[in-house]
Amino acid sequence: MLYAILTGVSLSMDAFAVSLTNGMTMKGFRFRHALIVAGYFGLFQFLMPLVGSFLAGTVADYIAKVGPVISFVLLASIGGKMLVEGIRCAKGIQNAAEISANVFTGGKLDHKKLFALSVATSIDALAVGVAMGVNPDYCGGIDLVSAGTIIGIVTFLICLGGCYAGRLIPRLSGEKAEILGGCILIGIGIKLLVEGLL
User: Fold this and answer.
1) CA-CA distance, 90 to 58, in Å (whole number)?
2) What are the residue boundaries of the structural domains of the chain, listed by start?
3) Which one of 143, 145, 188, 198 has the fewest CB atoms closer than 10 angstroms to its CB?
4) Which of 27, 29, 11 is nearest to 164 (CA)?
């Protein structure tokens, strides 16, 4: 069980960084927003090991190999859009009120964006599932569903904390928060890509 918890902590670090960015940039932040953001990341970190184990030896192996590229493309595209929006606003091309702060669009959560971020930050959990499908003792000998549940709960709690930690960061103007958030997402994407290629 301890190994599964440590695995969950390790797998949730990228999702934590994204949650931190969300907490920092979300306008009209409420507890329910943090629950939804953390719920997305926790759910995908729970599901991906199950999917990886179920598909072990088939397409999951291929997905695990190209996963870093997929994560990079998703994070870089979302981060790049945030970066462009922030720069356009800073230059007066775009009204600051029109900026959608990360997963917010028009004051509401953007579920499509949250879905993409959840997939991008959980592909490494798919690889863990593949490893568990090949070697059942990979996660300390506990069964796959229990391991996935622990990983999902750990991720949920860490991301919930990440959203609130982001609120403690001194508030930035809309365009500055958008630029910083975009840079963070692109940075995470590059990190995942480099780790996958090494």
Assistant:
1) 48
2) 2-197
3) 198
4) 29
